[in-house]
Amino acid sequence: MDHVQEQVLVEVADRNVRFIRLWFTDVVGQLKAVAIDPGQLEAAFAEGIGFDGSAIEGMSRVYESDMLLRPDATTFQMLPWRRTEDPVARMICDVYAPDGKVSHTDPRGVLERAIDNAAKVGFSVMVHPEIEFYLLKPPVAFDHIEPVDNASYFDHVAWGDSNDFRRRVIRALEDMGISVEFSHHEGGPGQNEIDLKAVDALRAADNIMTARTLIEEVALREGMVATFMPKLFIDQPGSGMHLHLSLFEGGDNALYSASGQYQLSVTGRQFIAGLLAHAREISAVVNQHVNSYKRLWGGGEAPSYVCWGHNNRSALVRVPLYKPGKEGSARVEYRASDASMNPYLGLAALIQAGISGIQQHIELEPEAEDDVWGLSDQERRALGIVALPASLQEALEVMRGSEMMAQTLGEEVYDYVLRNGEREWRRYRRQITPAELERFLGVRR
């Protein structure tokens, strides 16, 4: 038992923790949990906790169902809404096979492999996510969806539910060791955004899962409903999750060069070129639902075309401004990802795509200086700008031919993403359906 695990055992005893929830994620990004008694914790660290993997979406087949949860002691936190009566803590787990190897179908393991691959060529990745979501008034029904306010971007709503809600969520996040950079009202009625501070890629994915869970919990406890559905209202902005990626080589930001265009290094240009080269292949993971493509092609500043730009919000990849003397904050912003994506798989795909651009020395095409949405098809073709997939079915077809995605996800996860995506496409087609609302909001018609 290592030092961190010993500290957790001491903290569990000191805080009189009654239950410990072991969290893990299935392939589609749904949080799963099992509660154990503190008396089982030492065994969980040493041997893992067994469960039936065949009962979890995409985790294993019936004839190889035995799997183990191994808690990551560094993720130990008290659940802020369960501190007084029967205190409850949580840890995030890796999923193992009985032979002691990390399961090929564990999304967290997929990201860990991508991080290891980047480390082998000398790089680490930091991630700053911007999480968008809508707050709704209950009851929510198929023919009744009402946001908590009618405010818009950056509005201050006096005595508004959104203001108080964001403050309570931020306090709870910080209680769980997750630092928040800022929060604000987004463009749609009842739409909000909470931005988490940059951390390493694995911790960022853990934080995204935790933040989404906490946002839903706080909303329910305050008589509201929170949803990360990519496109809830036809005539309002969708909910994305812009991801700011920083690439480090040792202690230096590898994206930065004082002499480069926009202070962007050759490595940074190649990293962006890799993201663009594989953008269409990545779509089926970062935009995994039929509803995702209503956001991408439904306006509201969602990116629809594969290009990059400096401070150009119509571009798929943006190179933001940063303060002089803050070279360590140099970053690129990937703008297509949904608020509902599986963060482990999505970040794994983005990291591998960017690193492949560096390894293959892919040359970055000129930036998009104009509003890409305002160009004609002929003008976009002349600039070499291609479109992102227009539907989940198209995204799956593109991914089906991607060797990079097959290697990044691993055979089992790659095959499952394709099968599950085809199943969702056949069921939901092109409309916002009762089944779609059921998936994101728990609404039944």
UniProtKB/TrEMBL annotation:
Molecular-function annotations in GO: ATP binding; glutamine synthetase activity; metal ion binding
Record-level GO BP terms: glutamine biosynthetic process
UniProt keyword annotations, A-Z: ATP-binding, Ligase, Metal-binding, Nucleotide-binding
UniProt-listed SUPFAM superfamilies: Glutamine synthetase, N-terminal domain, Glutamine synthetase/guanido kinase
Domain GS catalytic: 107-445
Residue ranges of every copy of the GS beta-grasp domain listed in the record: 15-100
SMART domains (UniProt xref): Gln-synt_C
A Pfam family: Gln-synt_C
Source organism, top-level taxon: Bacteria
InterPro entries: Gln_synt_N, Gln_synt_N_sf, Gln_synth/guanido_kin_cat_dom, Gln_synth_cat_dom
Family, similarity comment: Belongs to the glutamine synthetase family.
Name the record gives this protein: Glutamine synthetase
Organism encoding this protein: Scrofimicrobium canadense
Lineage: Bacteria, Bacillati, Actinomycetota, Actinomycetes, Actinomycetales
